[in-house]
Design brief:
The complex is a heterodimer of chains A (486) and B (245). Chain A has helices spanning 24-36, 47-50, 54-64, 83-97, 114-120, 135-143, 239-253, 269-281, 294-299, 304-310, 324-329, 336-348, 366-379, 398-401, 427-442, 447-452, 459-470, 472-481, and strands at residues 2-7, 41-46, 68-73, 102-107, 126-128, 156-160, 163-166, 193-194, 198-199, 201-204, 207-208, 235-236, 257-260, 288-292, 312-320, 352-359, 383-388. Chain A is α/β, with parallel strands linked by helices. With 245 residues, chain B is of the alpha/beta class. Chain B has a single domain (10-242), classed as 3-Layer(aba) Sandwich (Rossmann fold), CATH 3.40.50.1580. The chains are: A alpha/beta (486), B alpha/beta (245). The interface between A and B is medium-sized, with 13 and 11 residues.
C-alpha cells in the first residue's frame, strides 16, 4: 500500500504574497500513518513547493504509482474553499491517467461537507467527515486489505455502487500529545517561503479548535456537524511539546521563522507559561508568530515581555466588527476597547500587531463599513488583514448568509473576493468597499513606514509588512476585478 | 481701498507665532509629507518645537553637534512659498527640500532620485515674487555637487518643472516641458528655489521619483518609493554633516 500526500499546483492567498507553506495536515497525517501503520509506504509530492505544473505532477505521480492519493488541508490560509477546484482538477488528471488510483480529500471545508462534496465531485472516491487524523490512516490500512471493509472506518463518505454513503461519526482525539510530531522529514523543508521574503519558514499547528466559536468562523468546516460542537472542543499540544517541536524545527531543519497557525494559541495561561519556561530551559529563541484572542492577551499581559524574549515578534488577533450589535450577533466575544488595549500592549513590547476584520455582514451598508474603517484606523494596529465574508457551508451563519450568496464559483471563495451581497450592498459594491477600506488603512501617511523602518520590530516583521504593502494592489484586483489567485 | 503696503509680512507671521530670532537653526530640512518629517525628526537629538500653526510644525534639534530645523515645508506651491519665506526670514541659511516628483525620462525608475539643478516655473505663485517670465531659479551648485557625491548612484540632475495642476499634465504640456530640458515634474521646487534665491540662501531640492509620465507608472504606494524616501532622509543628514556652517 502506497499513500501519496499531494499538494497540487496552485497559487496562494493574495494578501500573503508569495506564500508556499508546508501542508500541516499532510505533515501530521504522514506522521500518524508512519507511527501507527509502518508497513504502509508514504510518499509526499508538494508541487507548489517544487514549482511543478500539472504535466510534471502527473509524470511524478506515474513514477510513484500510489494506491491512494490524499489531498486536504487544516488551514483556511491555503485558500479557504478555493482549494477545492484545485484538488478537483488534480484528481481529474490523476483519474484520467491512473483510473485505478483511489483519491481521498479531507480537512478544511470538506470536514463539514463530506457527503455533499463527494456527491458533487465524481473524481473523489472518499471524503473524510470531520477530523482527519485517525480516519485517513485507518482508511489506508483498510484499503491495504484484500477485502476492505470501508463502512467500518468511522468518519468518511464513500460510494457504494454509485450511491454516496457516510460512516459513523468519529470522536475527536482528546490529547494531542498522544500524536507523533509532524513528519517534517518527508517534506521539502528548504523550499518553503512565507510573506514573499521569509525563507527557512515553517507553519505549525499545535492545537485544534477554539472555545469561542464565532458564528462566521470557517474553522467549523474542519468538523463533522454530527458532533457536539466539535470546533469549540479545544484541544492542545502541551507547552512542553510545542517547545519540543520548535527545537526539532530549528535544530534539525534550520527553521528561522515559525508561523504558528493554531486558530487560538493563547487560550490557557498555564500552557503559555509552560511554553515560555520550556523554550527558556532549552535555550531556544526563534522568531515566531501566533494567532490568539485579545481578551487572553489582556489576561496575560504580564506574559508579553517573556514571550517577546523567546521570539514572539508578531501576533494576530481578531476584531471583525466594531459595533456591539454585530459583535454580539456573530458571537465574537470581544470589545473594541480590548482590541485597542492589546494593540497598545503589543506596541509597548515591540510586538507587531495584526488585526483581522471583516466586511460583508448581512446588515453592512456603506456607512457601516466606512465607520468600521474609521474605527480601526483609530485603533491603529500595525497591520490589518481584511477579509470579505465567505459563506462556507458548515459555519453557523451559513443559513443566514446563503440567501445573499450570488457567486458560486469556488475559485473565488477565498475571503478576498466578494461572493455575496448584503441587505444594502450589491456584491460589486461590497468588493469595491473592501478594496477601499484596505487602501484607506494602508495609505495613511507614515503608517507603513512606521513598521518598515522601525528597528524595535524584528527584521522579519519589517519584511512581513513589506509583503503586505506589496500585495495591496493585488487585494484590490481580487476584490474588485475578480482576479483569481489561489 | 487698502492703504498699508502689505497685509501680512513674514515678520508679522513669525511674530504672531511668538517666534524669536535664533529659534531656527541655520540649516533646515523640509518636506511636505508628514511621514518624511517624522523620520527626519527621529534623527534629531533634543528636538524643541519651534511652532505649530496653520498646519505647519517645526522643530529644531541637534544632529552630530549641528543645529538643524525640521518641519513640513509645504506640499504645493502656495504653501511651499509661505514656509520657504518664513524659513528665510527666520534665519535659515541652508534649505534642504525632500520631495517627490514624476520622471520625464523613461530611464528614470520609480524609487530613484532627482536633484533639481533649476526649476521651470509652471506654478502660479512665483510671479508674485519675480516679474520676469525668463527667470529660472537655481539650486546651490556646491550643495548639489556635494549631495550628488553622497548619493553616488540612481540619481539624476536636471531641470524640474513645477506645476499647480497635477491633473492637467497633458501630452502637449509635458512634451513642451521636455523640449525645455525638464527631466521631472513636481509641485514645489519652483517657489522653493525662487524664494531661497531672492533671499540669497543656499537651497537644494532632492526628490524621490514616485511616478513616470513617460512610461505611465504610478507608484505612490510603491515599496521602492518608501525605501527611497528613507534613503533620501539619510542622504540629507549626510549633507548636513558636510555643510560647513
Amino acid at each position: 500500500m502506497k499513500v501519496l500526500f499531494l499538494q497540487p499546483p496552485m497559487g496562494g492567498w493574495v494578501t500573503w504574497g508569495k506564500h508556499i507553506a508546508i501542508n500541516v495536515n499532510h505533515a501530521q497525517l504522514a506522521a500518524n500513518l508512519r507511527e501507527w501503520y509502518p508497513e504502509i509506504n508514504i510518499q509526499v509530492l508538494d508541487c507548489r513547493a517544487l514549482g511543478m505544473d500539472e504535466n510534471q505532477m502527473i509524470d511524478a505521480i506515474k513514477g510513484i504509482q500510489p494506491d491512494l492519493v490524499y489531498m486536504g488541508d487544516a488551514l483556511q490560509t491555503t485558500g479557504v474553499a478555493a482549494i477545492h477546484p484545485r484538488y478537483q482538477a488534480a484528481a481529474k488528471l490523476v483519474k484520467q491517467t491512473m483510473p485505478e488510483v483511489k483519491i481521498c480529500v479531507g480537512g478544511f471545508f470538506y470536514g463539514a461537507n463530506a457527503p455533499e462534496m463527494l456527491a458533487k465531485t465524481p473524481e473523489f472516491d472518499f471524503v473524510l467527515y470531520g477530523e482527519t487524523e485517525r480516519t485517513l490512516p485507518e482508511l489506508a490500512k483498510e484499503l491495504s486489505k484484500k477485502d476492505p471493509d470501508i463502512p467500518s472506518v468511522k468518519g468518511l463518505s464513500y460510494r457504494d455502487n454509485g450511491e454516496v454513503k457516510t460512516t459513523d461519526y468519529r470522536p475527536l482525539i482528546e490529547n494531542l500529545d498522544d500524536l507523533p510530531l509532524p513528519a517534517y522529514d518527508l517534506f521539502p523543508m528548504d523550499k518553503y517561503i512565507g510573506f514573499n521574503y521569509l525563507r527557512h519558514y515553517v507553519e505549525t499547528y499545535h492545537s485544534r479548535g477554539c472555545p469561542n466559536g464565532c458564528r462566521f468562523c470557517v474553522g467549523w468546516t474542519n468538523y463533522d456537524p454530527r458532533g457536539n460542537r466539535d470546533w469549540t472542543h479545544y484541544r492542545i499540544r502541551s507547552g512542553k511539546r510545542v517547545a519540543e517541536e520548535i527545537e526539532l524545527l530549528v535544530k534539525k531543519f534550520g527553521v528561522k521563522f515559525v508561523c504558528m497557525m493554531d486558530e487560538d494559541f493563547n487560550v490557557y495561561r498555564s500552557r503559555i507559561e509552560e511554553f515560555i519556561e520550556e523554550m527558556k530551559r532549552r535555550g531556544l529563541k526563534v522568531p515566531f508568530f501566533f494567532m490568539g484572542r485579545s481578551p487572553y492577551h489582556l489576561r496575560d499581559k504580564d506574559l508579553l515581555k517573556p514571550l517577546r524574549e523567546i521570539g514572539f515578534v508578531c501576533g494576530l488577533f481578531g476584531m471583525e466588527a466594531v459595533d456591539k450589535e454585530t459583535l454580539e450577533k456573530v458571537k465574537k466575544g470581544i470589545s473594541v476597547d480590548q482590541i485597542a488595549e492589546t494593540v497598545r500592549l503589543f506596541r509597548e513590547n515591540n510586538i507587531m500587531s495584526v488585526v483581522t476584520w471583516m466586511v460583508g455582514f448581512p446588515d453592512d451598508d456603506e456607512v457601516k463599513i466606512k465607520d468600521r474603517t474609521e474605527r480601526i484606523d483609530k485603533i491603529d494596529p500595525d497591520m490589518t488583514a481584511l477579509q470579505i465574508m465567505t459563506p462556507l457551508p458548515g459555519i453557523p451563519m451559513y443559513k443566514e448568509l446563503e440567501p445573499y450568496t450570488e457567486d458560486w464559483d469556488l475559485r473565488k471563495w477565498d475571503f478576498q473576493h466578494a461572493v455575496l451581497r448584503t441587505k444594502y450592498l450589491s456584491k460589486e459594491d461590497l468588493g469595491r468597499l473592501a478594496a477601499w477600506a484596505n487602501r484607506e488603512f494602508y495609505s495613511q501617511p507614515g503608517r507603513v513606514q512606521r513598521i518598515l523602518y522601525n528597528k524595535k520590530y524584528h527584521p522579519f516583521c519589517r519584511l512581513i509588512a513589506r509583503s503586505y504593502v506589496e500585495t495591496t494592489d493585488a487585494h484590490a484586483r481580487a476584490a474588485v476585478n475578480d482576479e483569481i489567485f489561489v | 481701498m487698502m492703504e498699508r503696503e502689505i497685509h501680512i509680512s513674514p515678520q508679522d507671521l513669525l511674530q504672531a507665532m511668538q517666534f524669536r530670532p535664533g529659534d531656527f537653526a541655520n540649516i533646515a530640512i523640509v518636506s511636505g509629507q508628514p511621514q518624511r518629517v517624522n523620520m527626519a525628526l527621529e534623527k534629531l537629538k533634543n528636538p524643541v518645537k519651534n511652532f505649530s500653526a496653520f498646519g505647519y510644525t517645526f522643530w529644531t534639534g541637534e544632529y552630530k553637534g549641528k543645529r538643524v530645523t525640521v518641519g513640513n515645508g509645504g506640499m504645493y506651491a502656495p504653501d511651499a512659498a509661505l514656509i520657504t519665506e518664513l524659513l528665510c526670514v527666520g534665519g535659515v541659511d541652508y534649505l534642504i527640500r525632500l520631495g517627490s516628483c514624476g520622471a520625464l525620462k523613461s530611464e528614470i525608475k520609480l524609487g530613484e532620485l532627482v536633484l533639481a539643478e533649476s526649476a521651470l516655473r509652471g506654478d502660479g505663485v512665483t510671479k508674485y515674487y519675480v516679474n520676469n517670465d525668463g527667470f529660472i531659479p537655481q539650486a546651490d551648485k556646491s550643495l548639489t555637487d556635494t549631495l550628488e557625491a553622497i548619493c553616488k548612484k540612481h540619481i539624476y540632475r536636471g531641470k524640474v518643472w513645477t506645476t499647480d495642476a497635477l491633473l492637467r499634465e497633458t501630452k502637449e504640456v509635458i512634451n513642451n516641458v521636455i523640449r525645455q530640458g525638464g527631466i521631472a515634474v513636481d509641485m514645489v521646487t519652483s517657489p522653493f528655489l525662487t524664494i531661497s534665491q531672492l533671499y540669497n540662501k543656499k537651497a537644494i531640492a532632492l526628490l524621490v521619483v514616485s511616478d513616470n509620465l513617460i512610461t505611465g507608472e504610478i507608484g505612490f504606494s510603491n515599496i521602492k518609493v518608501f525605501d527611497a524616501e528613507r534613503r533620501m532622509i539619510g542622504y540629507a543628514f549626510n549633507l548636513v554633516g558636510a555643510i560647513d556652517a
